[in-house]
Amino acid sequence: MAEPNVVLNNSGLKSPAQGSTTREQELISRVQRGQNELFYELVRPYERRVYAAALAILRNESDAEDTAQEAMLKAFANIRQFRAEARFSTWLIQITVNEALMRRRRERTVLMEGIDDRRDEESDYAPRDFADWREIPSEALERKEVRLKLADALATLDRKYREVFVLRDMEQLNIQETAEALGISVASVKTRLLRARLMLRDLLAAGWEQGWFSRLPFEKGNKPW
Amino acid sequence: MVNSKDDRGAVNCEQMWQEISNYIEGEVDAGLRSAMDEHFRTCKSCSSVLAGARNVIQLYSDERMIDEQTIEVPAGFGRRLEKRLAQSARVRSSRWSTWSAWLVPVAALALFAGGLHVANSMTSGPELKSEHAQPGQGIPPDMLVVVTADAKVFHVPGCEVIHNKATERTLTAKEAMAQGYVPCLRCLREYLHTANAGHTALESEADADADEEIVSSGR
Predict the structure, then answer these.
(1) Residue A66: what pLDDT?
(2) Same domain, yes or no, for A100 and A148?
(3) Which of A22, A118, B120, B175 gives 20 to 30 Å between its CA and that of B46?
(4) How far is A30 from chain B (nearest CA, A)?
(5) A170–B86: do the CB atoms touch at under 8 Å?
(6) pLDDT tens digit string along A15-24?
């Protein structure tokens, strides 16, 4: 019997992130039927999401990599139990979060956050900018500079705000799951989330005024053709 | 520019800012929501804050925000993952080959030794959390299952009789069994002695009752 070998496959299937979910479903069902070599292609578009979720919980790059990979191995071992009603990315992130939590418990990484946790409950943060917010359309994300500006803005937040924001607003965990993942109270998640969102709003509003997003595609004088 | 005192209704601007995130999450009660709606109608500043916060969420939740520019995965991550997946696939394959190779002689030996005794002696595992329950047989050890706080049973994710869902955590069947959890009578019926494809609705109700009993006796 030929040994299964997991390699990047150039079968011509588009990556799920770029193509339709039908492609992803096709990949899933082929892996479920035993085409193990396609599994890496299936999870490759989610490498970053999985890693980012693990990093937000473990706060250590090497642990995050190991956990992200363990989670994908677990997903590989259990792919036959994946049901089409669920979103594959959600299933994968859920496995990752659980894996990261187990690791944290196992290694007894105590989060020394008790004092901080209380301090930010007394949130007196007020928005700085009340100028009319001009909406940045999602199409702006087509531009790498815009994505980088948004990533830079996020990177300026303190870690405790950033990790809540990453898990809730980027990884789409709910408030309860975010609280459990970070080992903090639901009230703290809500307070930090509020502050993260408002701080980012301020940064983006300021960026808007400085022209970060001014060269939008299809804007007058900036036609791509 | 921003009113700190309430001259428009029940909430002032500072209170609005504290609640704006909860408002977006749909986590404010009906009374507060209607007061906030009223405030947004008349306060340009707070409407601007709300629009901006919503825009932030919309932009950052976009899948394009998690790409090679915004999240830096350690160099060689993909290569290492591929390698580990390949190893895992090989192990699974060789495990199956080993099992296949041993299947016939082991089956013969089991028959020779009076299989039932062998099977019984092999099932002595950890102390079960519920004396009403059965340990289950043939459950794939790597199967992902969920358990909840204070319960004694483990379930297939999404099982309709999971209690106390807020405390749900996922682990493998092997880990759950090692910790003494027992299979749910409903969703893991196929692995129990009572497995019976043609069971009646009445029996299902009895299962649910039994499951309830197992769960509640754990509290």
Answers:
(1) 94
(2) no
(3) A118
(4) 15
(5) no
(6) 344 455 788 9
